[in-house]
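ok so for the tutorial part 2 we go from a plain amino acid sequence to predicted structure tokens. step 1 is just haveing the sequence, like this:
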Amino acid sequence: MKEKAKKKQQMGTLKKVLKYIERYKVFLVLSLIFAVATVVSTLYIPVVTGQAIDHILGPGQVEFPVIFQLLQRIGLIVALTALAQWLMNVCNNKITYEVIQDIRREAFAKIEILPLKFIDGHSHGELVSRVVADVDQFADGLLMGFSQLFTGVVTILGTLLFMLSINLRITLVVVLITPVSLFVASFIAKRTFSMFMLQSTTRGEQTSLINEMIENQKVVQAYSKEGDVLETFDEINGRLEKASLQATFFSSLTNPSTRFVNSLVYTGVGLAGAFAAMHGRLTVGQLSCFLSYANQYTKPFNEISGVVTELQNALACAERIFHLIEEEPQIPDGEDAGILEDVRGNVDLEHVYFSYDPAKKLIEDFNLKVTPGQRVAIVGPTGCGKTTIINLLMRFYDVDSGSIQVEQKDIREVTRKSLRESYGMVLQETWLKAGTIRENLVMGKPEATEEEMVLAAKAAHAHSFIKRLPQGYDTVIGEEGGSLSAGQKQLLCIARVMLCLPPMLILDEATSSIDTRTEMKIQNAFAKMMQGRTSFIVAHRLSTIQEADIILVMKDGRILEQGSHEELLEQKGFYSELYHSQFAV
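step 2 — the prediction. this is what the tokens look like for a chain of 585 residues:
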């Protein structure tokens, strides 16, 4: 049953691959035509060679004029064969890399619309491995399949026809021994798919570890964990070595096994042909032609067996990438989803329930009403659900029950684009793309003028350090901000939001990496920016949210206390404890 399921799985993957190839059927047909032309011209050469041999009758009996004509014909055929083979390879490359381009495009497009739950639940390095390494492996297998499978099959059929035209009995010897070669190749191929699948999965695990360690190398070195990381890497690397060796060893048995069978074919043809020549049923030229055909007939079996092995690897890699492509995307905007317009900042959360894991309750019966221009601060211990509220407001996750409304419209009934354009967001975790400072600043407002950009940078107190960079606003920074400090990266993210100035703001530990003096200046800039705008502020430093209109004190997904800074201190409850604990000596 397990074997049947595996075979069904392989066939399903193969059908998916063929659907991609079908888009380029014109090139597929051309490739087949050129493959036939290559094989026919290649098989015709032994016929002409045999004719030339038959014109060598004995000492002093060589018909040179005829032989020279035949040699010229062979030269022309070789040239045509080379041209046909080149054109076939052009078509094969076109099909392969167009298919790979389509698959990569679909995979990346799917990542863009996958729910954050999937991204958060999978290793980023493993996803990278699927889109890069697995697709490359698949491309190699597909290209080999086109290059050798077509010509191999056509060569086998063409050789049989040519041999039948020369001698039926000797051809039967070839045909009767052939199934042994096919059986050997099939037997080995069936057992290599699961091995290549394990190899591909382990390679993804290794890529994931490398990606994670490179991104966090400072932390690894700070805690002197290099040895532990190396041990983990060696363990995974050892498993990859074992899986790769096992897959390669078993797959490499195919070629020598089929070569042994093919040698039997060649031997059978040689013996049968020799007896036929002795009895005058074959000429010496025809015998040489037959031996050449026997060699050409068996050669494709070696190639096809190699192709089958490589295709096992390719299909294993294709299966992993198709798993990604076929993942359920985030719930799309409804056909009747409206556009959120004229946003003033009315936000209502009614009886909201949400948890990342159904077995672990988080937010339960959460209610909040925010009017335009209010500054809402959310405080509480780690893991109480502060950032989760932000995720729900932005609809990175959908509520399990209850509703979140903006301007009396349920956010599930409006487009995500219009909802997210209504918010400006600065997170504790900064993100800057590889490119210029300018490109990063205008990300949310591409049409911004130079003056607007500079004013936003000045408001965020980023202008002075930007001007000190080698090319100012045109300085190119690397991935994740390159050599910029954590504080400088956060200032750029703040400037990016200040340039957009949307009707609502979300500040999640927005000044966590900034020095106290600069933070005081930015708080003043934030105060100006927040005037007339609904703002949600997540902060651990309670000194930064004393001016908030409403402070929500959360614990275990519930609002324990609610009010202004002075009101909450007077209550002498949980907020008062948190506040005084920060200033305790």
